[in-house]
Amino acid sequence: MSRAAVIGGVVTNQKPPRSPLWDMPHPLPQLTDDQSAHRPMVAAHAVPWPGEMAVFRSPSFDGFELLTTFGSRARIGELVSDFYSGPTSRFDLGNDLVVDLLTGTLESVTDLTLFGGANAIAIESAPGTWEVVQAGTADLIAPGRYRLTRLLRGQRGTEAAMANPASAGARVVVLDASLASLPIAEADLGLPWNWRIGPASRPVSGETYVAIPFTPEGAGLRPFSVVHVEQTWRRPRTPGDLTIRWTRRSRALSADSWGAMEVPLVEEAEAYEVEILDGATIKRTLTTSTPSVIYTGADQTADWGALLGPGDTLTIRIFQLSALIGRGAAKTVTLTF
Questions:
Q1: Is 155 helix (H, G, I), strand (E, B) or coil?
Q2: Could you tell me what percentage of the chain is helix, strand and coil, using 3-state DSSP and rounding each to the nearest 5?
Q3: Dmax over Cα atoms in the chain, in whole Å?
Q4: Helix (H) or strand (E) holding 24
Q5: pLDDT digits over 188-232, tens only?
Q6: CB crowding 116-136: b at 16 or more within 10 Å, else e
Q7: Which of 23, 29, 223, 301 is most enclosed, with most CB atoms within 10 A?
């Protein structure tokens, strides 16, 4: 008998499972152009492979209706050893990613192929939290065991999911064409569906099906965190109004083009919220429609009792907004004056 579970917005079917995977689903970002950004993906593995898997859903615990079927077995497995955090936006040459796969193989690829999206793997860095990693070099070191190096970390906006470390035994899924898109509507986002996953040749009420509660969140619609946050005074070297600037990132797959002057805006409108923090307390929330905001001297005095000046620090949290799902990934920085 096989088992199924939601991992990173991906349903996996694994025998035997180390523990239930469906307690804390955490959807993955959009990975390819032919994948709708709001749709979760399904991946499955079973021994023996039944040939075709079926996905049923229901808003209750009965009356399950067939949503889709798919026939590709995914490459899934687990970490052999702890996997530590590393740099983003450049190669991580200091970490080895060692994984055991239940079936399938991995191969080394050129940098050009890697930059095109090859050898992408989702790693459960914490329960319900998934980092997307790409590997340029894959060495077979034992049957089904690979050492992956020349890594690209935190891909597709998952840098905040990086753990230090992701523990040995954490689940991994190779993100490739074996994953099938679940054909749900945007109106289904946020609804707590009950799912059943199992062999299409068997009845949905049978023991070979696994029941999974999963709420699609549309994480592919979630704006990435901003980068390159900096501050300037309205008048050089004079305390007063503070301008905070940053660079917008885009979740568009075409955003990697070097020929564009600016990455595309895929949201309905450009909008941000900036939280002024005092530890865990939110002192103030600023809004703006450009990649900058002014923290006025009057607001500084109201929040802190005085203007910010040399030697002071300010911790802020910035969110780009989506009209469909609200706040994107947060960028938290501490500015020093």
A1: helix
A2: 10, 40, 50
A3: 74
A4: none
A5: 988 999 999 999 999 999 888 988 888 888 888 889 999 999 987
A6: ebbbbbbbbbeebbbbbbbbb
A7: 223
Read off the pLDDT of residues 38-60 as tens digits, 9 standing for 90 and up.
888 888 888 889 999 999 999 99
Residue in this structure with the two tokens 């704006």, named with its chain if needed: 223
In sequence order, the 6+-apart residues with CB closer than 8 A to the CB of 288 are 271, 272, 274
pLDDT in tens, 60-80: 989 999 999 999 999 999 999
Q: For residue 30, what pLDDT is reported?
A: 72
Partners of 60 in the beta sheet? none
User: 57 forms bridges with which residues in the sheet?
Assistant: 65, 195
Euclidean distance between the first and final Cα of the chain, in Å? 61
Residue given tokens 């946050």 in the structure block = 229
**Is-contact 62 70, C-beta < 8 A?**
no
Domain 4-74+176-221, what fold? Answer: Immunoglobulin-like (2.60.40)
Q: Quote the distance between the C-alpha of residue 176 and its chain's center.
A: 16
What is 215-252 written as a DSSP string? Answer: ----GGGSPPPPEEEEEEEEETTEEEEEEEEEE-----
Strands (E), 188-330: 193-199, 210-214, 227-235, 238-247, 272-278, 281-288, 292-295, 313-322, 326-327
Q: Is the pTM for the entire model greater than 0.70?
A: yes
How far, in whole angstroms, is CA 183 from its chain's centroid?
20
Enumerate the domain spans of the chain.
4-74+176-221, 76-174, 227-336
CA distance 306 to 206: 68
Q: Is 6 exposed, middle or buried (0-12, 13-18, 19+ CB in 10 A)?
A: buried
Q: Is the peptide bond before 87 cis (omega within 30 degrees of 0)?
A: no
49-51-57 Cα angle (round to 5): 95
- Fold that domain 227-336 belongs to in CATH: Immunoglobulin-like (2.60.40)
